[in-house]
Structures
1.
Amino acid sequence: MARKHHELTHKRRERLADFVVPFRVKPGARVTLSKDFDPAFDGGLRHKREGEALLAEGVELLAEYQARLAAQDTWGVLVVLQALDAAGKDGTIRHVMSGVNPQGVAVHSFKVPSAEELDHDYLWRYARRLPARGGIAIFNRSHYEEVLVVRVHPENLERQKLPKASRQRGVWKRRYREINDWERYLSDNGIRIVKLFLNLSKEEQRRRFLRRIDLPDHNWKFSSADVAERKHWDDYQKAFSEALSHTSTEWAPWYVIPADRKWYARIAAAAVLVNTLMEIDPRFPTVDKQRREELLKVKATLEAQAPAGAAADPFAQDSGRDDSDGRAQRRDSEQPAPVSAKSAVD
Ligand code: AMP
Ligand code: MG
C-alpha cells in the first residue's frame, strides 16, 4: 500500500513539475512579455469543465500540504501576486485558497503608501507582513510595486523622501539587486517565495472593464483611475518585462500565469503553489520513542476510565487502518504512518 502511494505521489509530482515549466521565467533570461508569453495560453485544455476537476485536485492538495507545513513549523511561504488591473488577483486568491484552513493563511493588500510607510525604507511595510514559519502569506500587490508603479510614475519615488544619491540614475537596477538580496536572505532563512504574475492582454482588460460597467453588482469594482492607468499600458509592459528579467532567481523564480481565461489562471496558479509545497515536502513531526511510551501510559489511564458498557478505546479498530486510506490528510504522504498504540505494544 505504502509503495503504491509512493508511486502515485511521485507521478503526480512529476506531472505537476512538467505542467508549471512553461510558466517559469528562467533565471537570467531576458523577457519581452509580448513576445515570450501568451496571455491566452490554455495548454490544450479547451474547456472550463476539464479544468474544474484539475482545480479541485489542486485545492485539495493545497489544503493537505498547508496542514503539513503548519505542523512542521520550519518553512513559511510567501506568495507574491502581481498584475495589471482586472487581471483577476482577487478571484485567484478566492478560488485557489478556498480549501485552506483560514488559520494558516494571511492575505495582505498593498495600496498607495501611507505617510508612516513613506517615512521608512521602501521594503519596511512588506517586511512587516512576512509569514511566520508554518504560515502562508499572500501579498496582493507587493514590494514589486516599488519597481512597477513607482517606475511608471516617478512622482511616487519623489514622495519616498530618499536621500539624493538614492534617487539618481541606476535606482531601478539597484532596487532589483536589493530585492534579489532580500529574497535570498528570506529563502536562506526558511521563507519560500512564490512569485506569480497574472498576464492579461490589453483586449481582455478592455472587455473586463466594460463588464464591470455593464453589471450593476460589479460597478463598485470599477475605478476611473484604472482606465487612466490603461493609457500607460506599454510602460507597464516594459516595466514588468524588466522586473521579470532581473528578479527571476534560482531562489525565487517568477511564474507568468496566462490570465485571459480566468479558470485557466486559477489552475495554473494553484499548480505553481502546490508544486512549490511539494518541493518543500513538509512532514508531520513524529514523536520519539520516549514520548511514544509516555503517550501509551496516558492511553492506558484513559482506557481505565471507560464507563461501564463503553469500549476502552472506541477507535481501537480504526488505528490498525492508519496506513491505508483512512485519513485523507495522510493519503499522499510518503512518511510512515503514525504507529498506533496497538502496534507499538506488539
Ligand atoms: P487596488 O489594488 O486596485 O486596490 O489599487 C491599489 C493601488 O495602489 C494601485 O493603483 C497601485 O498602483 C497602488 N500602489 C500599490 N503600491 C504602491 C506603491 N508602492 N507606490 C505607489 N502606489 C502603489
Ligand atoms: Mg484597482
2.
Amino acid sequence: MPDPAAHPVPDPAALARDPGALADALAAISPRAAAQRDAIRVVHAPGRVNLIGEHTDYNEGFVLPVAIDLGIAIALLPMDDRRVELTLAATGETAGFDLDAIGPKRGAWIDYIAGTAWALAERGVPMQGFRGVLASDLPQGSGLSSSAALELASAFALSGGEAPPLDTMTLARMAQRAENGYVGVNCGLMDQFASAFGEAGHALLLDCRTLDHRAIPLADPDVALVACHSGSPRKLESSAYNERRSQCEAAVAEIARTEPGVTFLRDVTPAMLDGARPRLDPVVAARAEHIVHENVRVLEAVAALEAGDLATVGRLFYASHDSMRDLFAITSPEMDALVEIAAGVPGVIGARLTGGGFGGCTINLVRRDAVPALREAIMRDYPARTGLTPRVFEVTPSPGARRIA
Ligand code: GLA
C-alpha cells in the first residue's frame, strides 16, 4: 500500500477549482513549464445537468440543460511543436499524440482529446501542441457530461489556451462531431451545447432543429438545484442509447407513411401518434410517446419558469421521470428510489433522472431551506433500500468553457 503521507497527492477535485494550484502541478512535472511559469494557461469547461427534455435532442426537439460549477480544468504550456501530452492529476497517468498523426481511437481517455483535434482539423482550425495537466471535480460516472467538458476544454487547450476561432455553436457541433465521428458515441448536441454556452444563473433552452437558443433565468435565491448520485456508476450504455435512437427512427418511418411531413419525432403531435398507434410495435410506440410529450413538457417548463410557477415545473419533473421509467425505460430501481425518497421530503419541488439514463444522477428542484432535509432523507433511506452509498450535492448554474488563467 502506498503511504499517502509520504507522497502527499493534492486533491484532484480541488485542483479543478484552483487554477494556480493546477499550474503548480504542471510546473512540478515539467521542467519546461517550471521555467516558463508565466506562459502557463488554464482552461475550464463545465459539466451539465439537464432540467428537462431527455433524449429529445437527436429527435430534433427541445432541451433545457444547465452548465454547472463542476467540470474539467487543464493547465497547459503551449508548445511550438505538434506534440500533445497530457497528465491526469488524479492518477499521474500520461498519454499523448502527434497532431500530424492523430491515428485511430485507442479505447482510452486520450481519445476525447485526440477526437477533438481530429474534428478541429476537419474544420481547418489551426492547432498547436501543449504539455498539460488535467483535473476534474465531476464525480466519476455521474452522467454529468464529463465527455463534453473534456472535449470543450481540449478545444481550448489545442488552441493555445484561447477560444478556438469558431462561433460558439460551431464549437459545440465540432465537439459533438468528435464524439460521434471519432470516439464513436452517437450522442446528440445537448451536452456540448451546454458546456459551450453555459451562463451563470441561467438554464439554456435549445431548439435542436433550428439551433435557436435562449438563456432562461433561474433567479429565485430561495430555490436550489441538487444532484443526487445513485452511487452505481453510469455504465456508458451506448448500445442501449443507440437502440433508443433506432426505435425513435422506426417510429418516424412508420408514421411518415401516412404523414409525409414527418422527418423526426419533433414533427409528431400527440394526435398523429394516436392515429398511427395501431400500426406501431408497442415498444416503439412507447418510446415515441415519451419523446412527443417530453417536447411539450420542455416548453411548458420554460413557460412556468418564466411565470415563476415552480409548482408546475415540479409536476413536469415528476411526469418526465415517470415517462422515462414507464415509456422510454431508461431509469433503474436505484434512480426511481432517489426520486421517490425526494418526493416525500417537504420542500422538494420536483425530481427526475437527468441525462442519458441507466444510472447516474437525479436532479432535484428544492426550496433552499429543505436541502438539509433532502440530504438527510437520501443518506438515511437510500442505502437501506439499495445497499448503495449515494452522494448529494448542490449545483450552481455556471459559465461555459473559457480560459480561467
Ligand atoms: C446523453 C447524450 C445527450 C442526450 C442525453 C439524453 O447525455 O450525450 O446528447 O441525448 O443523453 O437526453
